[in-house]
Design goal:
The structure holds two protein chains of two kinds.
Chain A (H helix, E strand, L loop, with lengths): L3 H11 L5 H13 L1 H18 L14 H4 L8 H31 L21 H24 L2 H11 L5 H14 L6 H29 L1
Helix pairs in contact in A: 1-3, 2-3, 5-9
Chain B lengths: L2 H9 L3 H23 L2 H17 L9 H22 L28 H20 L2 H12 L4 H8 L3 H20 L7 H9 L1
The chains are: A mainly alpha, B mainly alpha.
């Protein structure tokens, strides 16, 4: 006998899994080799006793329920659209609330000293910022030089007319800034009507989703 | 039963079709789990897990032997259970007899057609075989259960175990040899009728 190789051959022979030529060779050896024949009997015994084991019936039914496998009722195609629109409207609504809450606070925050930005139009009714006064001064000086040159070439009344249209008076920029200041100081708020619309869209979407779910479950049952 | 049609239907999510398949295979699946695990309750749990897992992954079935595929699912469930058992070993509680002693196999002898002596023999035989099966390594036990108890051919066992055919042949031969060695120790316990039969084999 040739160890485990022969055991494997005997096992395969027993199951009819050996090739015809190998089977013939093994049968010849079985007749002459008592050790091999004994091993063959052992394997045959083991297989025979396993086949004697009674088949047991399943103690219960293993049939699956939808809950066991986590199946959900099929939903209509429009379900995803309503889900998206409802979620989007809710998000937007939250954003409007957040924006309206934060916007007034941003509007009244004074500009840090020396930064210049944010309160260029004049915060809190103070005078115009220094850098805004400089252009107005420059605007009065530069035209004045041009006027002197032009006065030599143009008649006096024409020069006066030109001056009145092209050169702003030194007080004009201040007046303009004073008009802009109140507008920039007010907080921009999202109108309540938009919030109401978003609320309606979100709530209606949620209601439709709920109804769709219920209808699908009823149909599923 | 048109198995192919049922499988295709189940692949499209039809649970009723899959339940029809379950009815066909549940005894085989339970028996396989029982012989691998050696405990009826855990075998039932493993069988249930196997069917749930099979339904969830049935889309991955690409033809071939469905029996081998479902057997692979149940052997995987059994291996999971064996790993769980090794992590958290438990001692099963056997029901007591009237004398207050533990009853070893209360349900095995449920066949009403058997005489008491036949029941005793069947009990002893099953005990001895199960003991020897449990003494085998898990891989060997699975192969021998599929090939010798479930009667699957080598290619099906190879598909169910996901190991090459040569490995199946080798494992089966070794497992049978070990079983024979183990059962020698139980020869006196084996029923007389079986002893006579085994001598005739």
């Amino acid at each position: 006998m040739n160890g485990i190789r022969d055991i494997e051959k005997l096992s395969a022979y027993l199951d009819g899994q050996l090739s015809p030529s190998d089977s013939i060779k093994l049968e010849a050896r079985l007749k002459t080799d008592p050790e091999l024949a004994s091993a063959y009997d052992d394997i045959r015994f083991a297989r025979g006793i396993l086949r004697k084991l009674p088949a047991r019936k399943a103690p219960r039914n293993f049939m699956l329920t939808r809950k066991m496998v986590g199946l959900k009722p099929p939903l209509p195609r429009t379900y995803s659209f309503f889900r998206f629109s409802s979620a989007f409207a809710t998000l937007l609504l939250m954003f409007t609330f957040a924006f309206n809450a934060v916007s007034p606070r941003l509007a009244v925050v004074p500009a840090p000293f020396g930064m210049g930005g944010g309160c260029e139009g004049g915060c809190g009714g103070g005078g115009p910022a220094p850098e805004l006064q400089a252009p107005s001064a420059a605007a009065t000086e530069a035209p004045a030089e041009a006027e002197a040159a032009a006065a030599e070439m143009l008649p006096a009344d024409a020069a006066d007319a030109e001056r009145s249209t092209e050169t702003p008076s030194p007080k004009e920029p201040e007046a303009g800034l004073a008009q802009q200041a109140p507008g920039q100081n007010e907080a921009v708020l999202i109108p309540v009507i938009w919030q109401v619309v978003l609320l309606v869209v979100g709530a209606a979407g949620g209601l439709i989703l709920f109804l769709m779910n219920q209808a699908a479950k009823r149909k599923w049952k | 039963m048109d198995e192919t049609a049922l499988i295709q239907s189940a692949q499209h999510g039809d649970l009723d079709s899959f339940n029809t398949i379950i009815l066909h295979y549940q005894d085989m699946v339970f028996n396989t789990a029982l012989r691998i695990l050696g405990d009826e309750d855990r075998a039932a749990d493993a069988a249930q897990e196997a069917f749930i897992s099979a339904f969830r992954s049935i889309a991955s079935f690409r033809g071939g032997s469905f029996k081998a595929w479902i057997m692979r699912t149940v052997t995987n469930a059994c291996y999971d259970e064996l790993r769980r058992q090794k992590r958290r070993p438990t001692t099963p509680l056997e029901p007591d007899t009237d004398d207050g002693e533990e009853m070893d196999s209360p349900k095995w002898l449920a066949d009403p057609n058997m005489t008491p002596s036949q029941k005793m023999e069947a009990d002893e035989l099953e005990h001895a075989i199960q003991h020897c099966l449990e003494a085998l390594p898990d891989d060997f036990r699975t192969v021998v259960v599929l090939a010798d108890i479930q009667g699957m051919d080598y290619s099906e066992v190879a598909a169910a175990s996901k190991v090459p055919l040569g490995t199946i042949k080798s494992r089966l031969a070794r497992a049978r040899l070990r079983l024979r060695e183990c059962l020698r120790g139980f020869e006196e316990l084996l029923p007389s009728a079986f002893r006579l039969e085994s001598e005739e084999i």
